[in-house]
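Task card 7
Instruction: Convert sequence to structure tokens.
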Amino acid sequence: MADLKQAPSPTSLTVRNQSRVLEIAFDSGEEFSLPFEFMRVYSPSAEVRGHGAGQEVLQTGKRDVTITAMEPVGNYAVQPQFSDGHNSGIFSWDYLYWLGANQSQLWEEYQQRLEAAGFTRESGRDAPMVAASAGGHACGHHH
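Output:
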């Protein structure tokens, strides 16, 4: 039978607007400090991730993004409202834990994607988003 290990549950969640990080602690003892920019770049929304492999939309110009509101979603997630208007990402506890546990590797992958798109690691963090094709977002839906 498969080992159905219970994922860690959060014990505290603090939005730090001045330092632009979300601090989250889990009942397993781990604590993570997730920068708002990192969360915005790795939003689990279809607008960012697309609807399948290879449909991801590279997020640029998110260095100074803030979280203007944070709403609970049931007992399993939060939905942040970012200062750039993005609000469709639902961050489950499992996903926040995964982001924290893999933060260094994910940030490196993001910076490599910026370079592959022709930006420097720093300039891509400030470059404005390129408009999607006429008709809305890259996934073809209007969000």
